[in-house]
Each structure stands twice: as structure tokens, then as C-alpha cells.
Amino acid sequence: DYFDKRTKDLLVSVVPPYETGATSVMMNAGNVSNRGFELDLAWRDRIGDWSYSASGNIATLRNKVTYLDPTVSRIAGARMHTATVTMFEKGHPVWYMYGYKFSGVDDATGNPIFVDTNKDGSITEDDKTDIGCAIPDFTYGLTLNVAYKGFDLTIFGSGAQGGDIWTFLTRTDYPKRNRLKLYYDERWTETNTTAPRPRPNCVDEDKYWYSDANIFDGSYFKIKQIQLGYTIPQSLIHKVAISDLRIYVSLDNWITFTSYPGFDPEAASISATSGMGLDKGSYPISKKLTFGLNLAF
């Protein structure tokens, strides 16, 4: 399938002229385009007492703001501590990540270096720009089923490729108090002057936390379920007025493949609002070990 969805006259909150006395008003100010492909494939077969099936799906998405009312240059989204970190702007994906571009560490001082996007010789708020997008390039899933006589096995997984995650762990109002271990391991020191991350208490540290140095690839593949079941033969249960009895054990959300250094890339990217892709210390999706039975009379 191919889809091309164009949404017009989105309601957005804007700040009106101060003379109105209102702090914000709603107006039809934006258009958004969503395009992509969806593909599903499945195969089922039987070999003697064995039966099996495999199915998979993949979906792409290209998102862009195509129009914004001329009276609005861009719309501020989520805030972290004192800074706006997402924006809604024509020509960009919805709620793109907004901050400084980090270009490395000064070997001599251990201070961060930022891109002077305005080329005016200084780093200010005006140098903030589009530094990431939480929307993945594509999402996908895979399901495998195998059955032999009374036994059945199901393995289901899903994932996303691309899509950025901006870490704000764990206290969103104090981003400097909680850090991933890699900030310690990769920090600049007098004996490690080629480190990829600046020294503690560096100059412009606040700008560093609001830069793409803290944005990571949110790609992942998670095995959502591994379930093994056994259906008791009819010859053993028909005498107790049960027409079907199946017992099973299931492992849910036990295995995740990802390079994201935070807790859980899936939990961090669930939001579909202006805070999408912002990891505020989202609690990981719990692993479950489940035992159960299905009865039919």
C-alpha cells in the first residue's frame, strides 16, 4: 500500500498581540503531509505433523509541515527546564528537535565547541537549529508460529529504524544531576585530551546539554513475546466436560537489540505529541513471565 495523507487547518496555540489581553489563542495555522509505503508478507505451510507460518510487515513515513500561517514563523513545543527543545515549522518534520549543533571538544581546555550557524562569531540562542527528528524512517514487525501435534510456539517482535532520542535523564528540571555512564567514561581529562565529551563543569555546559551531543539513535528491535503452549488431547479431557484445554508460558518484552544507552528506546519514543523522542526518564516497559491456561466448555 502507498498512502499520501494531507492534513489541513491544524489547530495550534499561538500568542496573540498583547493588546488582546489573552495569553494564547487557537487558530487554524498549519498543514502537514504524511507519505509512505506499507508492505505485508506472509507464508504458511505444513510438513507432516509440523505446521508453520511466518509473517512480516514494514511501514515507512515521510512527514513534513507544508504550511504555516504567515503570521507565525514557528511554534514552540516542549520545554525542558528553561529551554524550548521542539519546534513546529514549515519545511521540517512536526516537532523537530531544536538546539545547538555540537562539533567537538577543545583538546586544550576540554570545553565544548558549537557550530556558529549564523556565522556572526558568537554562540547565542540564534544559533539553535534543527538537530534531530523522533519520527523513525520505518517501523517493522515479524511473527513466527510453529506447531507440532499438541505443542505450539509463537515468537513476535517489532522494531523501528531511525528516529532520534534526546536524553533528559532522570530529573527533567535538573538535567545536569543525572547522567549516563558514558558521560563519565568519555569525558575530557588532562590525560585524555582527545575525548569526545567535555570536562565536568566546562564552559557553556548549559549549551552542551541542549545540543545534539545528547541525541542518540533510537533504532531498536524488541522480541515482544515468546510463548510456548500445549493443548491437552481430547481423549484426556472429554470426560470432565471440557472441550478444549491449553496451558502456556510466555516471556514478554524480554529481549531488546539496540545501541541506545538509555533505559528503553521504545518507552522513550512512545509520545506522539510535542514531546516525542524526549527521554525524561521514561520507565522501561516491564518484562513479564506469564503462566496461563485457556478453557473451553
Explain this structure:
- With 297 residues, the chain is mainly beta.
- 6% of the residues lie in helices and 49% in strands.
- The protein is built from 4 helices and 20 strands.
- The longest helix has 5 residues, at 181-185.
- It is globular and about 85 Å long.
- The two termini are 41 Å apart.
- The mean pLDDT is 91.
Brief summary of the model shown:
Helices cover 6% and strands 49% of the residues. With 297 residues, it is mainly beta. Strand 8 and strand 9 form a beta hairpin.
Largest sheet: 9 strands, antiparallel
SS element count, helices: 4
Strand content: over 45%
- The rounded Rg comes to 25 Å
Total strand segments: 20
Question: Topology, please?
Answer:
Elements: E1 2-14, E2 25-47, E3 50-60, E4 62-68, E5 75-76, E6 79-80, E7 83-84, E8 86-88, E9 96-99, E10 102-105, E11 112-114, E12 129-132, E13 138-148, E14 151-161, E15 164-167, H1 181-185, H2 205-209, E16 215-217, E17 220-231, H3 234-237, E18 244-258, H4 265-268, E19 278-279, E20 288-296
Parallel strand pairs: 15-19
Antiparallel strand pairs: 1-2, 2-3, 2-4, 3-13, 5-8, 6-7, 8-9, 9-12, 10-11, 13-14, 14-17, 15-16, 17-18, 18-20
Keywords:
mainly beta, 20 strands, single chain, 9-stranded antiparallel beta sheet
